[in-house]
Design goal:
mainly alpha, Lipoprotein, 183 residues, signal, globular
């Protein structure tokens, strides 16, 4: 009976992975991404904001907010200065993620916060946005599969919804990416 249940779960996971892979081109077109902004545009030098960074729910294309400063402010629960060491550390994480996924800083930050909120809403153990960025960058799936950060976040969430633990979902994604790339 247990082998049958595991086989059924494996078939569901394989079907989900196949569906997600088929949807990846469509998911990539769903975002509001435009061509990647130039470095100077990604880190505004004006840290005076008309709204509280810590309470800002989403960064739009038109916001003149550093994604790293926004993430650091959300984590701290209050606005932090652009020169704060936490901002610099988050900027490094966003740089690393961009080198793996090619996704602009703003989009990576938005998707990570969105995933953090979805995980919290499900009542699962909290995973903060910065942790998610680091984890996804470390597994480096995009290098082998061509997935962007948003697509990986969606795949991860769907696998968690099917009952996989955090570690199981990450391992599944990593294994599937290796299999897809022939490694």
């Amino acid at each position: 009976m247990r082998a049958t249940a595991q086989l059924g779960r494996g078939v569901r996971l394989a079907a989900t992975w196949t569906m997600l892979c088929a949807m990846l081109p469509l998911l990539g077109a769903c975002g509001d991404e435009v061509s990647a902004p130039k470095q100077a545009e990604e880190i505004p030098t004006d840290s005076t904001q008309s709204k509280t960074l810590a309470k800002t729910g989403w960064l739009t294309v038109h916001d003149k907010i550093s994604p790293a400063q926004w993430l650091a402010s959300r984590e701290a629960g209050h606005d932090v200065e652009l020169e704060d060491p936490r901002v610099k550390a988050l900027h490094k994480k966003l740089q690393d993620a961009k080198s793996v996924f090619g996704t602009p800083y703003r989009m990576t930050a938005n998707r990570a916060v969105q995933l953090e909120e979805m995980i919290d809403k499900e009542g699962w153990e909290h995973e903060d946005a910065a942790e998610l960025i680091t984890t996804f960058t470390e597994i480096g799936v995009s290098k082998t599969s061509g997935e962007g950060f948003g697509q990986l976040a969606q795949a991860y969430f769907q696998l968690r919804k099917q009952g996989l633990s955090r570690d199981e979902a990450l391992q599944y994604i990593q294994d599937e990416a290796k299999e897809t790339s022939g490694q």
